[in-house]
């Protein structure tokens, strides 16, 4: 490989203006999950302008670009997600969302722009690459069942030896990159419970079966699963996030709807927790003469980072940025459909810091005032290019 890591930065500097421009265009024109028509066309046209890439549209709103190196070698896939969220933006930049009710509030505009910048740089380096770089521009990360599984089903991972992905991360200060082997992001499951009692006059509770009192017991008893039934060393969240009942102060309602989320890493918990939940719901409702319906839906699989790929990525990042920049990532209970790619090839997902307290860039992801420090964008490009050179260099 004749391209040295020291040379990477100057290549990145040459595309940074474009990357920022692309990110701002995408930010201004957000599209929701499964509706990324203009976004994917923009990505397709931009990639086509680079030359040297084989382009395809695996699904209606996604794009894949393949860069075949001059020499045989492994296939490295890099993924960016492209969808926005149903939120009205409260920022007032000149490139703020033009569409009320839609906003890039998770940084996926930045992910897309960074991967475009990476493709631009690498499309000029095919004669130095041993193997293939596959750029995956994925739709619909934010909405279950997610775009990643559809991409896998469409065959985009065929022949891939390893896969990487970045999430820009506002809780992490710009200038840091967080890498972690093993469990990194949780499996987000969803549950729906209906408790059916017998409605009636609030002044005659004895003639009713009050589902509110029963549901209240269900909510508190469900917390016993986390605190009493499972190993405290296995991370687990069980949150009841919706409790809907009633129409007036003098009516005992007929039903209560309880919905919520369960977050976990261990596959066993995803069968054990719903079993315990239903046992509690059944026991409490039966004890009080009510009936129930219980539905549990598994969401994305957890993001579990492969050790060998992660260590290779960590080494590449340290060579590019130095020891001070690359820190150990903290696992968290959010979900990511990047796990779909990891189910067919070893991979690693890591965070590039995008927050900046001094500049007031402090809002969490999915917040109407969320934004990123754009200095994170060239860092993400440099990370991708550095990893490609480390993996597919001579
Ligand atoms: Ni996201």
Secondary structure layout:
Elements: H1 5-28, H2 37-50, E1 54-56, E2 63-68, E3 71-81, H3 108-123, E4 130-138, H4 147-153, E5 162-173, E6 177-179, E7 182-185, E8 187-196, E9 200-201, H5 211-229, E10 236-245, E11 251-252, E12 255-264, H6 269-287, E13 291-297, E14 303-305, H7 307-321, E15 326-328, H8 339-342, E16 347-355, H9 376-392
Helix pairs in contact: 1-3, 1-9, 2-3, 3-9, 5-6, 7-9
The structure holds nickel (II) ion (NI).
Please give a quick description of this structure.
The chain has 394 residues and is of the alpha/beta class. It is 34% helix and 26% strand.
- Please tell me what the overall shape is: elongated
The portion of residues forming beta strands comes to 25-35%
Give the low-pLDDT segments: none
Mean pLDDT: 97
The number of domains is: 2
Radius of gyration: 24 Å
What is the third-level CATH name, the topology of the largest domain?
A: Aminopeptidase
Question: Terminal Cα separation, in Å?
Answer: 5 Å
Helical percent range? 25-40%
CATH architecture of the largest domain: 3-Layer(aba) Sandwich
The bound ligands are:
nickel (II) ion
Q: Considering the protein shown, what is the CATH homologous superfamily of the largest domain?
A: Zn peptidases
Task: Explain the overall architecture.
By secondary structure, the protein is of the alpha/beta class. The protein folds into two domains: 5-183 and 303-392, Zn peptidases (Aminopeptidase, 3-Layer(aba) Sandwich); 187-297, Alpha-Beta Plaits, CATH 3.30.70. It contains nine helices and 16 strands. The protein has helices at residues 5-28, 37-50, 108-123, 147-153, 211-229, 269-287, 307-321, 339-342, 376-392, and strands at residues 54-56, 63-68, 71-81, 130-138, 162-173, 177-179, 182-185, 187-196, 200-201, 236-245, 251-252, 255-264, 291-297, 303-305, 326-328, 347-355. An eight-stranded mixed β-sheet has the order 1-2-4-3-5-16-6-15, sandwiched between helices. Helix 3 (108-123) links the parallel strand 3 (71-81) and strand 4 (130-138). Helix 5 (211-229) runs antiparallel to helix 6 and helix 7 (307-321) packs across helix 9 (376-392). The protein is elongated, with a radius of gyration of 24 Å. The mean pLDDT is 97.
